[in-house]
Design goal:
With 454 residues, the chain is of the alpha/beta class. It is built from 20 helices and eleven strands. The strands form two sheets. A nine-stranded mixed beta sheet has the order 8-6-7-3-2-9-10-1-11. Strands 4-5 form a two-stranded antiparallel sheet. The protein starts with 6 loop residues before the first helix and ends in a 10-residue tail after the last strand.
Length: 454
């Protein structure tokens, strides 16, 4: 009967080379993989021979874990073993782990081989080689080789090299990370966001959440062409990028839309807005973080299935569109999200924590909301989720296409401040009805934002 792989048993065979060899030669790969995962820290006098024996195993997972454990020993005598694995092993995971193991040696004698790996066809091997060589970045020849990777075809490698050797200049901030201009606090402005946003200082906003006007699907959004529509969004979102604080979030709600056919002689056309706007956002400096799918009840969406339901002919199937995309982007920065969090005091961080149950997946089932004035309203629940997940209490949230002002209402409910712009006078009036708070200021945009009239 096989011994149970308890902690005590693993410690026993780890300390006895013969017992470990017996286990390796008699057990199936499943139990062997479990053991290799549980070996933990190895003693200084650990005999490496059982692990070296496993490097000839047919199972790549076993070889990978053997290398991972051998790397813990940090013995330069194993350099030649790791080197041969990088050169000859058919498994990408084994080659990457062997490169990492060489890096852990931190020995200058490995430099020539690691420099050679910078030309490897596997970007992960190159990344591991870069990590290993950064230890020797003060060696001029090493630094020169690494700097050349700024033009590497892999974008992640480019980012690492730029961060390490060509960091972005630090701009002098007008406001601290947690602060914003007082004149934006809880303000709704009637006017074209393209004009209003010019008066907003750089890095003023902590979070933007918006749903832009649909392309030629509503009276308030008529454009000469789809290209013109995308260029309009690009102009606005470039400015949103400018006014967003370093490393903070832009959340965009869009969905493909259908332009009905002119007559039965022509077909309707469907425009994939989320997918066409995405590359424009990435190019202007937004880092893609997540795609959230907002699902509505089927009864609440337009029925596109009636014809197919009757005839059932292939090629004519048109599913009912129950989903919209909620795309999450972060303003590109060398800094990790931990840096953003550390800009806040402990009290603010504690008070902003998401308490209780929350949606753990990227599928959000939220009922739509219908309004007597506005035909495409943000559900309050959708706004509350985005605000809670992507901002702190006291932050400024922005909606350039405010519609009925739901984002502002959610912001105040959650202890945030808002800045909203809206172009349509009747929606502006609707915002007044929806908010109606004493501490909200309504302005009509003139020619100078600081001189707007009440």
């Amino acid at each position: 009967m096989a011994n149970k792989l308890t902690k005590d048993y693993i410690e026993l065979i780890k300390a006895d080379k013969e017992k470990l060899f017996d286990f390796i030669q008699s057990e199936n790969n499943g139990r062997l993989i479990y053991l290799l995962n549980k070996l933990g820290k190895l003693p200084n006098d650990f005999d490496e021979s059982p692990l070296l024996y496993l490097l000839d195993c047919q199972d790549a997972k076993v070889r990978y874990l053997a290398v991972k454990n051998l790397a813990k020993l940090v013995r330069f005598s194993l350099f030649s073993v790791f080197k041969q694995l990088v050169i000859n092993d058919p498994s990408a995971d084994v080659r990457r782990e062997a490169t990492s193991a060489i890096g852990r040696l931190r020995n200058p004698k490995t430099i020539p081989f690691l420099i050679g790996l910078l030309k490897d066809s596997d970007p992960e091997v190159v990344m591991q080689a870069i990590r290993a060589l950064l230890v020797f970045r003060n060696v001029q020849s090493v630094a020169k080789k690494l700097e050349q990777l700024k033009e590497h075809p892999n974008e992640i490698i480019q980012d690492v090299i730029k961060k390490e050797f060509f960091p972005s200049p630090t701009n002098k901030k007008t406001f601290k990370h947690t602060e914003f201009p007082a004149f934006l606090k809880n303000k709704v402005v009637l006017g074209d966001v393209q004009e209003i946003i010019k008066y907003i200082p750089d890095e003023s906003v902590h979070l933007t959440f918006t749903s832009p006007p649909y392309y030629n699907a509503r009276d308030y959004s008529i454009y000469q062409s789809y290209e013109e529509y995308l260029k309009f969004l690009e102009r606005v979102f470039k400015e949103v990028h400018r006014i967003t604080k370093e490393g903070r979030f832009f959340v965009l709600n869009t969905s493909p839309i259908i332009i009905p056919r002119v007559s039965r002689q022509y077909s309707s056309r469907r425009y994939p807005i989320p997918y066409d706007i995405h590359p424009l956002l990435v190019r202007m400096g937004w880092e893609f973080i997540d795609d959230i799918v907002w699902i509505k009840p089927e009864a609440s969406v337009k029925n596109r299935n009636a014809g197919f339901l009757q005839h059932r002919k292939p090629l004519a199937y048109k599913p009912n569109a129950r989903t919209e995309m909620v795309m999450v982007y972060r303003k590109e920065t060398d800094k990790l999200i931990d840096w953003n969090i550390k800009q806040y005091d402990r009290k603010t961080v504690e008070e902003s924590k998401v308490i209780g149950n929350y949606e753990t997946s990227n599928v959000w089932e939220i009922d739509p909301v219908f309004d007597k004035i506005h035909s495409a309203v943000f559900p309050l629940e959708l706004c509350k989720r985005v605000i809670k997940f992507y901002s702190f209490k006291g932050d400024l949230v922005f909606d350039p296409f405010a519609g009925s002002g739901t984002l502002g209402k959610a912001a105040l409910m959650l202890g945030r401040y808002f800045f909203l712009t809206e172009k349509d006078p009747k929606y502006f009036e609707r915002i007044k009805e929806n908010l109606g708070f004493i501490d909200v200021y309504y302005r009509i945009f003139k020619s100078d934002f600081k001189g707007v009239e009440k």
